[in-house]
Amino acid sequence: MGLPKLAPAQAAHDKLKALGILALNGMFDEMDALGVLRYAVSDVLPGDLAIVSSFGADSAVLLHMVAQVDPSMPVYFLETGKHFRGTLDYVETLKRQFGLVNVHAIHPNPDDVKRFDPEGNLWETDPDSCCHIRKTEPLEPITEQYGGWVTGRKRYQTTERGVLPHFELTSDDRIKVNPLAYFSDADVVAYRQAHNLPEHPLYAKGYKSIGCAPCTSIVAEGEDPRAGRWRGLNKKECGIHYDFSGAIANPMKAANRHTLWKDGAFIADPFKEWEEGADASEARYVHVPLPVFLANRAAFLANPHPLGLLIVPGDKIEEAEADLSRFASVAIKFPSFSDGRGYSTARLLVERFKYAGEIRAVGDVLQDQIPHMRRCGFNALVVTHEPTREALIENRLPEMTLFYQPVGLTEIPLGTRPFLRRVS
């Protein structure tokens, strides 16, 4: 007998709370992948479940099961723009052979790619940011539409996945379903052969786990199947997965997922904090403290990678006036709510130096400050204060109509007649 249907927003949490995550996982034999998937679709989250597939080496097995349960289920493929040609061909092969009629390609935001990876080589030096822009950020708005989603992850693939269950409850109260959790590599091969499933064109060449072309290599005999992913780097996951051990990736938390507010939304932000002692000639996507920039000016100017500049109270932005065009972003720090020196720095950038790049506020950024910040030229905000985040999202910031200190040439200070105002 099936479980009662609940409202999608409450379904995942209430069902797993009632049954218990262990009880739900205990309902199925370890190898009953088809049963897990069928129950998830028909009883756990009917009409509120999607498939996320890499269309990689093992994807045919899960997608074959999807075709048996419901070939009209939504299937999402992250088209990062970095896949092997063979993978893109494989997508069409499986769609055609399995009769999958609801496959969608998810593309990264072209503005994010243009801004943060204009040369297409971010994967070489910062694969985490590359994955964030091309995978995590595009996928989140899709999965947020559903009460849960299905993955093809398996325990055997890495030691980190060794505790993977059939059902997971994420920190945002959605269900992640892993029908193949207990399948071994031999099980996958056996299933593929038993059902005469098409093999990924690169599998026979030694690619056992297939992702983006630049970050995937051939796996040697005896190696971990995912050893060819991000080889030589301290990286094992792209960031879109989480299991209950917390070892694969951190649970998704709204407060951590997006902190950069720009153009009316919280967006991807590959900029990271400057680390003391970092190589000026190799730095990228960091806000360089002004004293560090001045001490290593030649090296930073010769550095071809995107950089930002960090200004803290006491810094003189005038010292970098001639080089401001070098920076894609200027971050101005507010160490406390009451420290207003950052407003003057922003006004200098806009009014005197005509800086046209991103001016972001960082530090103690609260909702009452934001109208002042916008007046002074800030066009980006790094916000971690939850009430302020909510106020931005709900568009309920305080309004300002009276000004004692005007900005630019359009505001009229309180008590001043417009024709008496001095224009400097």
Commentary on this structure:
The protein is α/β, with parallel strands linked by helices and 424 residues long. The protein folds into two domains: 8-252, HUPs (Rossmann fold, 3-Layer(aba) Sandwich), CATH 3.40.50.620; 256-418, TIM Barrel, CATH 3.20.20. Helix content is 32%, strand content 12%. The protein has 15 helices and 13 strands. The chain has helices at residues 8-19, 21-25, 33-44, 59-69, 85-98, 110-116, 122-125, 127-143, 185-194, 254-257, 290-295, 297-302, 341-352, 370-376, 386-393; strands at 49-53, 75-78, 103-106, 148-150, 167-169, 175-177, 260-262, 265-267, 287-289, 308-311, 329-334, 358-363, 380-382. The strands form two sheets. Strands 8-7-13-12-11-10-9 form a seven-stranded mixed beta sheet. α4 (59-69) links the parallel β1 and β2. The termini are far apart. The model is unreliable at 1-13, 158-162, 241-256 and 416-424 (pLDDT under 50).
- By secondary-structure content and strand pairing, the structural class works out as alpha/beta
What's the level 1 CATH class of the largest domain? Alpha Beta
Unreliable parts: 1-13, 158-162, 241-256, 416-424
Mean pLDDT: 82
- Strand percentage, roughly? 5-15%
Per CATH, what is the topology of the largest domain? Rossmann fold
The description of the largest β-sheet is: 7 strands, mixed
Write a brief structural summary:
32% of the residues lie in helices and 12% in strands.
